[in-house]
Write the structure tokens for this entry.
Amino acid sequence: MNSAQQPTVLVGVDGSVASRAALSWAADEARQRHARLRIVSAWEPEFRAPYAPADCPSADQQRSAAGAELAAAMRAAFGSDCPAGVTAELTRGNAERTLVDRSADADLLVLGSGPPPGPAGRLIGPVIQTCLSHAGCPVVVVSRPGHPGSPAGRHDRAAAGSPPG
């Protein structure tokens, strides 16, 4: 980042309790750093087979639902007045790729961690794994309130290729 520019805190939001905790943490961090807050929500349309029942949501309906989740997360974090310096982006695409791409222009990436899908015992899901490995900035993973495995409620990790701090 150019030192003359205002720092940017990037946060990924997916509508989960964990991502709302990450948004809250990122908003506080952005205020403390006098940084811009960039909220990103990526969505991918579910495959809809030609023979699927007619009541399956269309891509437009899925996009609308993703936008509603993003708006609800922002209302929960900020109420009806979004602070200055906060931007939100709803983008169609893979969450891992989107967040890694956007992290190139950020000073910090914040993600929420809840119970990951898949085998028991895994502490993080594929989005977090990818971002920890490939993000262009430091990553903070915020656990949802009451989530076991993170008594401190957050984990810091240096930028890809740097030793953990």
User: Anything to note?
Assistant: Helices lie at 17-33, 59-78, 95-103, 126-134. The domain at 8-46+56-157 is CATH 3.40.50.620 (Rossmann fold). The radius of gyration is 16 Å. The first strand starts at residue 8 and ends at 12.
